[in-house]
# Entry
Amino acid sequence: MVHIQHVDKWYGNNQVLHDIDLAVEEGETVCLVGPSGSGKSTLLRCVNHLEEIGAGSVWVDGELVGYRLRNGRLHELREADACRKRVEVGMVFQHFNLFPHMTVLENVSFAPITVKNENKAEAREYARSLLERVGLAGREGAYPSQLSGGQQQRVAIARALAMRPKVMLFDEPTSALDPELVGEVLAVMKDLALTGGVTMLVVTHEMGFAREVGDRVVFMDAGRIVEQGPPAQVLGDPQHERTKAFLSAVL
Ligand code: ADP
Ligand code: MG
# Structure
C-alpha cells in the first residue's frame, strides 16, 4: 500500500533522510520508533506529500505521490494531482487542531462535503458511524472545547477516516495528552488496526502499543532505518547498539 524507495530528504545542507526503503502492506500496522530528530515526522510528511523529496520515490497504492531523480531533475506532479493523492492519506498529529467553531459532527463531515463533494446527508451519516466507532456516539453536537484531549484526538481520528484514506499516518498521537487519556486513544487505534483492517504507519513512543498492535517495528536513528522486524524481535532482542541504547532509555 505504501512503498518508499531510496528516499533522501534535505533541509538546506542538512540531510535528514538517508536512502530510506520501507514498504507497508495493505492492512498492516507499522510502528516507527526512534529518538527525537531522527526523521520520523519528516518521513510521514513525505508519504503525505507535504514535503518534496530530494531523491527516490514514494508510492501509495501503486500511484507515485512523489519522486525526484538522482540527477536532480525535479519531476513535479501537477498540483491538482498532488491534492487528489494527498486526500488518499489520512494523518493524525500530536496536536489535533480541530476547527473550534464547528461541532464534532461538522469537524468530521466538513472535508468530505467540501473537498470530495460528498452528498451532505450521506457524509453526516458516515461521520456519525465513525464517531460511534471511536466511542463518541452522543457527542456529535459538542464543540471541541467541551471535550477532553483524548476525546478531541478521537474526533481527529474520525475526521481523518472520513476521507476514506488508503493509509492512516499517526505522528505521536498521544504525546500531547495527559497520561490518563492516552489509553482511550490507543484503544481506538488498536481497534482500527486489529478489527478495522486499516493500513497504518504510526510514530509512537508507546512501546506497549508497538509490541501489542504493531505487525512490524521500524527503528530509525539519524535519518536512517537502523533495524526492523517483528515487535518481539526489535523490542525484545535488538541487534544494534543504537536500538539498545534508545530502548533502555524509553522502556
Ligand atoms: P522526529 O520526528 O524523528 O523527531 P523530524 O523529522 O521532526 O524528526 O526532524 C528530523 C530532522 O530534520 C531534525 O534535525 C530537524 O531539526 C530537521 N527538520 C525538521 N523539519 C524541518 C524544517 N521544516 N526545516 C529544517 N529542518 C527541519
Ligand atoms: Mg516528530
